[in-house]
Design a protein that fits this description.
The chain has 329 residues and is an alpha+beta fold. The chain has a single domain, classed as 2,3-Dihydroxybiphenyl 1,2-Dioxygenase, domain 1. The chain is built from 6 helices and 16 strands. The protein has an 8-stranded mixed sheet. The longest helix is centred in the last third of the chain and has 13 residues. The model has no long low-confidence stretch (mean pLDDT 94).
């Protein structure tokens, strides 16, 4: 039995993109997520950091991107999050296939996984993504954003991430330490034929699943790959206890780093994937009203004093709006 609070699940997933405008257009207009924060990479302020989420930026819903335009194309392989899956309401995959056809999105045939229907597809940078049909309960914490996609089909936060690692056992033990429980295994389909997929579940309602798959497929970080996956440790106390638990497993977590909308601890798990622990507070509405989320370039802390210089180095982008999209038709 652990002496720390188990993680409720995924907090956010951060990926690497190329062209920032193309990234915005796809994740906001095509997929219908809300741009809840437009900022910069705090470790590289010459690059944007975009946060796409539900209507309120609920923990467990935000897919974030560093659009490093000069980076080369990545290759998904061992030591990476290979796929990120989102929840969509039961019966909505017909809508999504029709939408993907309309927008020219590459997608694969539906598959069944652990009794659920999955629609695999790729974003414009080649990032592997999936939609998974689930029953959305009435008390679900996510709030659908309906500017481009109707509520009955809207993405409702994360379903799962799939981890590709050369040796699954140490990674699986770490997930148990973090409070996830093994809930099933089945033969993998698609990406890694013949290998066994092991599913772990956290206690929370959103982003609760982590699948582990063994592979020795070579990898390279770049456009179309995941940079890191963050797990919820809601309070500072939860995070400190989880950090200690991770450290006791022989890993080397960082000290807490203030990321303005949450406080973070980072470490590489045994298979080489970068994990983050992220607090719930202060959240995306701490510096912008809910009605204006993503409306301006937010520069955290000391970066505000460098606004003129930072803005001059960033590519101009336009946030997709439903009214302007209708006007173009």
């Amino acid at each position: 039995m652990t002496d720390h609070t188990p993680t409720p699940g995924i907090h956010h997933v951060t990926c690497i993109a190329g062209d920032p405008q193309r990234n915005l257009d796809f994740w906001v207009e095509t997929l219908g997520l809300r741009l809840v924060k437009r900022s910069i990479n705090q470790d590289d302020p010459s690059t944007y950091h975009f946060f796409f989420a539900d209507a309120e930026g609920t923990p467990g819903t935000s897919m974030t991107f560093f659009p490093w335009e000069n980076l080369s194309q990545g290759k998904v392989g061992t030591g990476q999050v290979s796929r990120t899956a989102f929840r969509v309401p039961d019966g909505s995959l017909d809508y999504w296939e029709a939408r993907f056809d309309e927008y020219g999105v590459e997608y694969d045939d539906r598959i069944e996984r652990f009794g659920e229907t999955v629609l695999p597809f790729s974003d414009p940078d080649g990032l592997p993504v999936e939609l998974v049909e689930v029953d959305i309960p009435e008390d679900d914490p996510t709030v659908p954003w309906t500017e481009f996609v109707p509520e009955e089909s809207a993405i409702r936060g994360f379903h799962s991430v799939t981890l590709w690692v050369a040796d699954p056992q140490p990674t699986e033990e770490l997930l148990r330490t973090m409070g996830l429980e093994e809930v099933g295994t089945e033969q993998a389909q698609g990406d890694v034929q013949g290998d066994e997929r092991t599913r772990f579940a956290a206690a929370g309602p959103v982003g609760k699943y982590v699948d582990v798959l063994p592979t020795i497929e070579g990898s390279r970080q770049g456009h179309g790959t995941v940079h890191h996956v963050a797990f919820q440790t809601p309070t500072d106390e939860d995070q400190a206890a989880m950090r200690e638990a991770v450290q006791s497993e022989g890993l080397r977590p960082t000290a807490q780093i203030n990321r303005h909308w949450f406080r973070s601890v980072y470490f590489r798990e045994f298979g080489g994937i970068l994990f983050e622990l992220a607090t719930k507070d202060p959240g995306y509405t701490s510096d912008e009203p809910r009605s204006d989320l993503g409306g301006r370039l937010v520069l955290p802390g000391e970066f505000e004093a460098q606004r003129e210089q930072i803005e001059a180095g960033l590519t101009d982008v336009t946030i997709p709006r439903a009214d302007s999209a209708e006007a173009d038709n």
